[in-house]
Amino acid sequence: MILLRCPYCREMRSEAELTWGGEAGIMRPADPAIASDTEWTEYLFMRTNTKGWLQEQWCCSAGCGQWFKVERHTVSHQIRQILRFDEAFSDVTIAQEGAA
Amino acid sequence: MSLTGSKRRASGGHIDRSRPISFTWNGKKMQGFEGDSLASALIANGVGIVGRSFKYHRPRGFMALGAEDPNAMVSVRDAHGYTPSIRAGQMPLAEGMEVRSVTGWPSASFDIGALAGLGKPFFGAGFYYKTMMWPNWSWFEPIVRRATGFGRPDGSKESRAAQHQYQAVDVLVVGAGPAGLAAAQGLIGSGLSVLVAEQEQRPGGSLLWEEAEIDGKPGIAWAQDIAKEIKATPGMQILTSTLVAAAYDTNIFTLVQSVIDARGIAAERHITLHAKQVILASGAVERPLLFADNDRPGVMLAGAVRRLIRDYGVAPCKQLVVKTSNDSGWLTAFAAQDAGIKVVAILDTRPRAEAVHLAQAEALGIPVVFEAAITAMKAGRQLRGLTVSTPSGVRKFACDGLAVAGGWTPLIHLACHRGAKPVWNDALQMFTVPELPQGWQASGGVTGCTSLTEALGQSLQAAAKSSQRQAKATPLVKAPAFGGVSLIRRPSGVPANKVWIDHQNDVKLSDVEIAVRENYVSVEHLKRYTTLGMGTDQGRTSNVNGLAMLAHLTGREISEVGITTFRPMVSAIRMGTIAGGHEGDLIAPRRYLPADAVHRRLGADFEDFGWQRPDWYHRPDASDRDTAVALEMAAVRSDVGIFDGSSLGKVEVTGPDAAAFLARFYVSDMATLKPGSVRYSVMLNEEGVIYDDGVVACLGPNHYLAGPTSGHAEAVAAHFERWRQTEWPSSRVAVGNVTSNWCSIAVAGPRARHILAVLNPDFDISPAAFKHMQVREGSWQGIPLRVARVSFTGELQFEISVPSRYAEALYETLLKGDAAGAPRAIGMEAWLRLRLEKGYIHLGSDTNGRTGPTEVGMAALVAKRQDDFIGKRSLTLPFALSDEREQLVGLVAVSGKIEAGARVLAPGCTAPPCKTEGYVTSGCDSPTLGHPIGLALIERGFARQGEEVTLYSNGRTSRARITSPVFYDPENERLRQ
Amino acid sequence: MSILAKSAFGNLHGSSHALASVHRHDIHDRADLAAVLVVATDDDAAAELASIGLTVPTGAGPMVAQDGLQAIWLSPRSWVIQCAPEAEMALVARINAAFDDRRITASLFGDHLAWIEISGADPQALLRRGGFVSLDAGGIAPGSAKRTLVAEVNVILCHIEPGRLLAGVERSRARYFVDWLKQAAKEPSPAF
């Protein structure tokens, strides 16, 4: 069970209270009308499917309803960064054990 | 109680001889004492054969006294309920228990299957893979199904109460044996919240039966004192009879606590626990040795024999042989001798030089044989003697009990649930987990430690680390040596089909040989091919021996072979405990309409559509569903009906950017919607698939009310929020889900306006002033009133909303009707058929995960939009433009019925197997039209108008013609009246 | 008014379970409480609300009481304001009149939520039979509110004072929630 502390309401939330939103940083083409089929399908479907550190989106769905960003290790579920949605991930190369 | 067959000692153990407990075993009356487990009570009463083996129906006795016992599966009925299958050692004895063997017919001690040798030609290694093959696996299935399983459910409802509970603590200590207790003691005074979970009814673990002195006290007294101290410390608790069944990510655990009273297991509590830190002190179980006929009743693990004597006051036999590969087995000989059992011999597999207890054995006059191997057993249903090969020749011993000590298997399950890797420690001859999950520590037997002093030291160190304090001093311990394990060897001079590895699943050394011969040399393959370790004991006593043999046969080290994956649960838990009271109306959150009581009074037959909604109404003229539905539909078509649509979503979208925001979601341009107007449309996901449909009402400048489908309101509100937050964060828009604040009652039919007039609204409802697809707000007797003129039925229809506290009042008022008559209450089925006649889509029925707006005939709407909306770009991807896509069309029956779910067969086919080109999404007999109609998603459907197709459903075929989906009033004249 | 008599305010929509006394706890339907939902388009809405004399919390946790109102933070741009049923319509009108561009919108919410009061020995312990309630030590502090899941139902939990807790439950699920509470409060064995 994933546990994350929501950066908006500051509550520790268990998995049942959270909604996973897939990889973070997926950019919607600014003008979809002029995006090529390839650009559009890359945006829709192509994900890194990382085994390791992954930057992703989570929602405090049973709490304050806010979307936020998390850097999580997909094998160990270690959490390295939890950010508000408008914050940028920093380059972390050394795991900060037990962030959150 | 007859003393015949009684193996109870006159004294000794922790049972209370002043409190006898009566129970029955296969109908026979027996007696035990308070403090007994079912296993100890049965053994004390002389029960030697407790069950039959799975494949070969071999008689089996008790091998161990806990979850590791592969043999003693029984069914138990106590005052609180029935348990179809549990290990006797895991069940505390209680008054009035009815205990039965679950294997063997007609009884465990006399089994016809064994006489007939049934199964012998059957169940060799790879049986399932060699037998269960198409096309004739089904011939074998009934036979195998009958033969499998332990125990039968009795068909009764689970009567034992079960409750769920969630808890968060700082430290979970798994196990209240000496290691767990020492860890907990180390945490006293730390201020941390601590939960100590112990599977047994009493704390103490091995101190209940092993000889030990700690801090000058007998081990058990030391344990009891610490338990008391823990209980008295605020924030600390010991839960006994509590199994830590599973460990999950981020240190979430499943615990099952049995609440035991004098008459059995009264209730169970399913605890979901979060622990910041964990001290794993789950101990180890003993491993049997491999030799000829090692599955005979009378062969027990040496530690279990010590426990029977010292904890339960039971002498399991009169003449005992101990066979051991380490020092601990010798302690069984000493305990037995002390209890008056004649110890015939100690057989040590090791050379003389390694035996540390030799002097004591000699002093007690116990014969000792080194480098001994058992080559044959004299036994029918009861062990009578053994043949032993020794360096000095073959010797025979008469005995009725054999205690075996093959070393220890640490209980590393929980750490492995979390992905910790078991590593073979060659020096200890055990799998341990040197690298534990984050926040975990381990102490005692689970680390491979066999020294009590060392275990207590580990625990106090772990506690110190958890509480970030100095470690308390390790207490002074006096306890005999336990160590010195010899290698697991293939028994020599013995046929492989006489050596049993997995006693529950009847896996022999010969099965491992077959697997290896057939190249199933991976440990995971071996497990599945032979069923080694797949029993309810999860291979606690068999896995390591089995893979040691695999290593031997393939010329590898055990460390190369590895071990199979550990998965939750650690031991079986009751389904009723998992359900935890979620049954009947409480099985999952139910949603009730605000006018629920009125519908019940009106005789509604309810269905769960996400909400509990009337499906149809019992009436004097309608006692069955078909009649009721036809009459309800007729009422709407010819007069007027009333329908509760309160579950329809109501999501307010407000703010300066609300119009532009909504325009990005719907296929229709909501930005052009004027106050007082309503528009129907669909919204797509970004892949261009229809996500939801419904109307949007513009209630005023910057103020919209979206109406997602019933049960979808929260999802659509969340969908709006997600895009608002993540894609358009500067958009000045707010979303509020107010669904349940409003009830919505629809009146539909030619007389709908007359019924609305009953409310005497404070706005003009004349056809000229209040047109189709408009919305009006006003008041009714001083309360807010909102009326939308929309139609789902194809008739004139008004959707009337007031705050939901007035739902019953509104419904009752409308139901009274006017001078010309009362509207008929309409249920879901009639409502859905009315819309089917009109060809309106029912989201999720008539659309699926591939249906886009084009496929439901909305291509023109899409083409009109110049600006972007969610999913629009996907509509021009090649797959969206493919003419192979299934398009929604109407079907009119040519012959037979049109049933939802029927497949549309490819042209030229009359029956499957053949290619199908779509399926019927909705179908019914239309009372209005007088023939069956349907909607279907059919490949290239739009271009196939007029074509006849064959439908196939549940073995029946019918013929239908493809038509327009609008069967009723295609000119929309009626809803504009 | 005749229609008010027909359907008592705050009912659990057909449930006969509006009141219950369960083991060590009482459960009441607080029909005397209504609410208003306030949603805003901008992050500085709390200041804007203050400008019309409404104080709302700027973050999760502590509730703000004022003039018979109790404001509960739901998200950075939304609040629930508990009020008396008689005050609900006027409060909505007052807020909406102040922000006619609808950068802040108030909606009737008294019927969307049922307020279930749980009083007794340890209401949070009772609720922990359906969820963690809080993973932080001490649980929900007195005077604070928190949204979470209990028995798979979204609830707004308000810790009024020790031994008294209000659960705001979406109305259609209120009957299930009360039925669940009654079941959860059962003590199947004295040993429990």
TrEMBL record, chain A:
What is the originating organism of this protein? Answer: Pseudogemmobacter lacusdianii
One Pfam family assigned to this protein is SoxD
Gene3D superfamilies recorded: Folate-binding superfamily
**InterPro entries associated with the record:** SoxD (IPR006279), SoxD_sf (IPR038561)
Its recorded name reads Sarcosine oxidase subunit delta
TrEMBL record, chain B:
Where would I find the GCVT N-terminal domain in this sequence?
598-864
Tell me one Pfam family matched here.
Answer: GCV_T_C
Q: Is Oxidoreductase a UniProt keyword of this protein?
A: yes
Instruction: Check the record and name the InterPro entries matching this protein.
Output: 2Fe-2S-bd_N, BFD-like_2Fe2S-bd_dom_sf, FAD/NAD-bd_sf, FAD/NAD-binding_dom, GcvT/YgfZ/DmdA, GcvT/YgfZ_C, GcvT_C, GCVT_N
Where does the record place the Aminomethyltransferase C-terminal domain?
A: 887-969
Q: Does the keyword Oxidoreductase apply?
A: yes
Q: Where is the FAD/NAD(P)-binding domain?
A: 170-415
Q: Which UniProt keywords apply?
A: Oxidoreductase
- Sequence similarity: Belongs to the GcvT family.
Query: Per its record, how is this protein called by name?
Result: 2Fe-2S iron-sulfur cluster-binding protein
Q: What's the source species for this entry?
A: Pseudogemmobacter lacusdianii
Q: Upper taxonomic classification of the species?
A: Bacteria, Pseudomonadati, Pseudomonadota, Alphaproteobacteria, Rhodobacterales
Automatic annotation (TrEMBL), chain C:
A Pfam match: SoxG
In terms of superkingdom, the source organism counts as: Bacteria
Which named protein is this? Sarcosine oxidase subunit gamma family protein
Source species: Pseudogemmobacter lacusdianii
Per the UniProt record, the lineage of the source organism begins with: Bacteria, Pseudomonadati, Pseudomonadota, Alphaproteobacteria, Rhodobacterales
